[in-house]
Amino acid sequence: MGRNLLLSIQWELKVNEHSKQKDGSSCGEFCLMFAERHLSGESLLNITNEDVLRKRTEVGTTLLLFEEHIADCCPCSGFKVDDLKSDLVPCGICKRKFHKKNYCVGNKISNMSSVQHFTCKDCFKQYIDPVE
User: Fold this and answer.
1) Which residues pair with 89 in a beta bridge?
2) Of 21, 85, 87, 118, whose CB count within 10 A is highest?
3) InterPro entries recorded for this chain (predicted)?
4) Structural domain ending residue among the three candidates 65, 95, 117
5) CB 75 within 8 A of CB 122
6) What contacts 81, CB < 8 A, 6 or more positions away?
7) Residues 69-112: pLDDT tens digits?
């Protein structure tokens, strides 16, 4: 019965006027803002760069509320870090543990036979190349 009901519904395709993304990295923020605005009946026009930055900050803040749930995960891959089964390399600065895989620590570190620690990208950016 449900299948027949779905087949009998006529859908209307409609493209509303909307703001256009101006970069190659804000598609997630735009999708969230479009959904929120559409569901609340607001206009999809006039989304500014400031709106995108505000949404990105809001999403980041929300994700950080759940940081304790990801504390035992590799910061790069997001997979659970199991000390007994994984070949792990700690960052010498922040002490977070990374899988010894090229997509987590880079080719140079992943190919080394013995590594005590390395500097992760976040710490390298923050401590080695500080923003002035």
Assistant:
1) 98
2) 118
3) Papain-like_cys_pep_sf, Znf_FYVE_PHD
4) 65
5) yes
6) 72, 73, 74, 88, 97, 99
7) 556 666 666 666 665 566 888 888 888 888 887 777 777 887 88
pTM of the model: 0.46
Q: Which structure tokens are listed for 72?
A: 């035992």
Give the domain extent around 51.
25-65
Domain membership flag for residue 13: no
**What's the angle, vertex CA 73, arms to CA 70 and CA 77, rounded to 5?**
115
- 76 within 8 A of 100, measured Cβ to Cβ: no
In a domain, 83, yes or no: yes
Same domain, 56 and 84: no
CA 99 to chain centre: 18
User: 105: domain CATH number?
Assistant: 3.30.40.10
Beta bridge mates, 97: 90
| Cβ–Cβ < 8 Å for 45, 17 | yes
* Assigned token pair, 6: 């779905």
| Alpha carbon distance 12, 51 (integer Å) | 30
Q: C-alpha distances in angstroms, 74 versus 12, 31, 34, 56, 122?
A: 45, 27, 32, 22, 13
Q: How many other CB atoms are found less than 10 A from the CB of residue 59? A: 13
| Tokens read off for 82 | 């199991």
